[in-house]
Write a structure and sequence with these properties.
The complex is a heterotetramer, with two copies of chain A and two copies of chain B. Chain A has four helices and ten strands; from the N terminus they run H-E-H-E-E-E-E-H-E-E-E-H-E-E. By secondary structure, chain A is an alpha+beta fold. Chain A has one domain: Aldehyde Oxidoreductase, domain 3, CATH 3.90.1170. In chain A, the strands form three sheets. Chain A has a four-stranded mixed beta sheet with strand order 1-6-8-2. In chain A, strand 3 and strand 4 (44-45) form a beta hairpin. The longest helix of chain A is centred in the middle third of the chain and has 18 residues, at 55-72. Chain B is of the alpha+beta class. The radius of gyration of chain B is 11 Å and the shape is globular. Classes of the chains: A alpha+beta, B alpha+beta. Strand 2 (29-36) of chain A pairs antiparallel with strand 2 (29-36) of chain C, so a sheet runs across the interface.
Chain lengths: 156, 77, 156, 77
């Protein structure tokens, strides 16, 4: 079951399918976050994106995020699927679904999940522009990991 | 023998996804320095490491049969 | 277009369809809230629910919520569909989708939308239990509308 | 002539979805009192009103041809 809830795939991701995985009789609220490929970042036009993953570890880190969420918000259930490969504008890169008896926890846990994905999941994004390409996050101006490791999950 | 994995920009810089090296017993930080020097990898200091899919510290030791992955700052999501 | 974005329907609601309505090239983040029929409320088992709407006014109020959201979070786009009729446990009662260039506004605007729906949209829920039925929200212990009107949209 | 709409519990109590009454010119609050008295509707005071699909105040006047809806506390979502 846990294997189904957290996945990294090179196939298109369905918002409805990921959300359905967490709908349960005891829940009244489900939040879904969908990350899509945005055309403009800081005024620069992206043509397409490429996501590359250390797949086995990425799935393990998604599962870890799921565990962190269940510790922080005990009645929630999360499912996350991240896409890899070449994506066009508006394609879906990631879907995070969290169900909960009440909505507050579902919003909080969902937002926590996307923050943690950006911290600990070994997936990389390469921007393709008209004038070249760049791996995002490999520049000195981005996260430098001062402790050599990503931060522990106690942000929220 | 230890297995070394490279990702994203690092993979492009070194020109391969993985290599095997006879470096069992070395620390993560010494392995980083050795790779940076022998393969001209200027960004190794900004790179995290994972041993057998768990994030490692710079002073952790890489043992025989381990897989160590070098992980540039991630940008998923 | 606005007619498509805000709807009240007696047909099943698709999470993916409502979310797709707001996905745009300039957006990188979409939040979707799905309200489902919960089996237990305060320990009491619900068998099914019935939603009844003042349909034409409910659509108008959903459109008003959409306008309030665009005033508060100018780059967002919202779509909301609310179901009416007889619903079973885990059936989808409402789907709210909000897209935004960045995720913070998408979460905030989405949460605002569900709060406002519970304040101003003329839709009523009737709980069906083993031992009877009740219209939710018609008891003295719930919202009494001290000003005779629902609150204005300046909560967030 | 004004058209009056009832919803949810109020609709069940009065036994109909709508009615037409010769009450043009009356205030919302007077119409509430009249309906409560003539149709035994004990919950009218907790009920909002909308004239032509816009929420109204108790002292707003209902004019000839208007549709007034009585709206018990809502519970959608």
């Amino acid at each position: 079951m846990a294997d189904d809830l957290f996945a990294v795939t090179d196939k298109p991701v369905s918002i409805g399918e990921i959300t359905q995985k967490v709908i349960r009789p005891e829940c009244g609220a489900v939040t879904t976050f969908t990350g899509t490929v945005r055309e403009l970042t800081n005024g620069k036009r992206t043509l397409s994106l490429e996501y590359h993953a250390y797949k086995s570890m990425a799935v393990k880190m998604l599962e870890q995020i799921g565990q962190e969420i269940q510790e922080k918000w005990p009645d929630t259930l999360a499912a996350i699927t991240h896409r890899t490969g070449h994506l066009q504008i508006s394609d879906i890169a990631v879907v995070i679904a969290v169900s909960s008896p009440h909505r507050k926890a579902a919003y909080e846990a969902n937002q926590y999940a996307i923050e943690r994905i950006k911290e600990i999941v070994p997936i990389w994004k390469k921007e393709h522009w008209a004038d070249g390409t760049k791996w995002v996050g490999d520049q000195l101006e981005t996260t430098a990991y001062p402790q050599g490791k990503p931060p522990k999950g106690d942000a929220l | 023998m230890i297995k070394v994995l490279f990702f994203a920009r690092l993979q492009e810089e070194i020109g391969k996804e993985s290599m095997e090296v006879e470096k069992a017993g070395v620390s993560v930080s010494d392995l980083k320095k050795w790779l940076a020097a022998t393969h001209h990898l200027p960004h190794m200091t900004q790179t995290m490491a994972a041993i057998n899919e768990n994030y490692a510290n710079d002073d952790d030791i890489v043992n025989e049969g381990d897989t160590i992955a070098f992980i540039p700052p991630v940008s998923g999501g």
